[in-house]
Design brief:
By secondary structure, this protein is of the alpha/beta class. Helix content is 18%, strand content 28%. It contains six helices and 18 strands. Helix 5 packs across helix 6.
């Protein structure tokens, strides 16, 4: 598989705060619209989204809600670290989770099988084995209560270095969030508001949903997304068959829909969309702005072509678009 394009990402483009903290409404973030049909690029705001879609189009969103999946932990020698829960182990027992070890915003690579980490409130995590040969680990969790209740009481949202301060869990939820399970926010849908949804309805654009619970997104250069849990309902599949175009809201939605082939399905997906494995179901994508070594860029190239993607990123860099989960948006048609 060939690498993603090498774009330069200046630090000034990193979005360190939610738009609300900058005095900007969620739906007032910028939107760059890229059309493959005529290779055009158009600058707008997210609240203008309905005007770029047509009656009969279908937006498919992710209903997964973000977990407070980061836990403070201590090693046997007393040194602190952060334990990020990513996803349950596919086909494993409920207490076995894929986890990442971090400290001070950096990944740790010195974990060892059998190591026990003390968690808040008397919890414990034991590292069992590396996960799929990567820097992630399978860990056996021993908690004083049910996982969701424990995380609600002891956990906090996963945060990376580009976010300067802790933010409440609500800042990491979208208007569609209904089913807890994602380690990190399906952030492409964050700019949606009731005002935008009303505009879509008036335009004749329908909305359907899937569920894909995301794992940690802090992948190393060249790493592909790990297996993730997904579900496409029969109702969503039926709406897709009736739609003029299917526009995915987020790369998570593309992954779920392309795994299912547009049919009702659920389970674990290992599917990765690339120019060599192009989309068969999705006609467009709403997404954020991804780091230059992110595997998601291969998906964008598969949808819109490498030239248009590269031009989009060059335009976004020149215009000062903001990156990451609290940043601006990109619509590819």
């Amino acid at each position: 598989m060939r690498p993603a394009p090498a774009f330069t990402l200046p630090a000034r483009l990193e979005a360190a705060e939610p738009p609300e903290a900058r005095g900007v409404a969620r739906d007032e973030v910028r939107l760059l619209v890229a059309r493959r049909a005529d290779e055009s690029l158009t600058h707008a705001t997210f609240r203008d989204l309905p005007s770029f879609l047509d009656p009969g189009d279908l937006l498919v969103v992710n209903r997964s809600a973000t977990l407070p999946a980061a836990l403070k932990a201590r090693r046997a020698d007393g040194s602190p670290l952060d334990l990020h829960l990513s996803t349950p182990v596919p086909m494993g027992t409920p207490d076995h989770w894929v986890v990442e070890l971090r400290r001070g915003g950096r990944r740790l690579s010195d974990g060892r099988a059998g190591e026990r980490l003390a968690l808040p409130g008397g919890g414990r995590a034991e590292l069992v084995a590396p996960y799929l040969g990567t820097r992630l680990w399978v860990a056996a969790l021993t908690l004083p209560g049910p996982l969701l209740a424990y995380l609600a009481a002891r956990g906090h949202p996963i945060r990376y270095g580009h976010t300067r301060r802790e933010r409440p869990l609500g800042d990491y939820q979208t208007v569609f969030a209904a089913e807890p399970g994602s380690a990190e926010m399906p952030s492409a849908a964050r700019p949606f508001t009731p005002r935008v949804l009303a505009g879509l309805e008036a335009r004749g654009v329908r909305v359907a949903s899937i569920v894909l619970h995301t794992g940690v997104s802090s992948l190393e250069r060249g790493e592909l997304p790990y297996p993730e849990r997904y579900r496409v309902s029969a109702a969503t599949a039926a709406r897709m068959r009736e739609a003029r175009r299917v526009i995915a809201v987020g790369t998570t939605v593309v992954r779920a829909l392309e795994t299912s082939g547009g049919r009702a399905a659920e389970g674990w997906t290992r599917h990765v969309v690339t120019p060599e494995r192009p989309p068969r179901v999705v006609d467009g994508l709403i997404t954020g702005w991804h780091d230059p070594d992110a595997s998601h860029l291969l998906m964008l190239e598969a949808l819109a072509g490498p030239d248009l993607v590269e031009r989009s990123y060059a335009e976004a860099l020149a215009a000062g678009y903001l990156w990451h989960e609290f940043g601006d948006s990109h619509l590819l048609l």
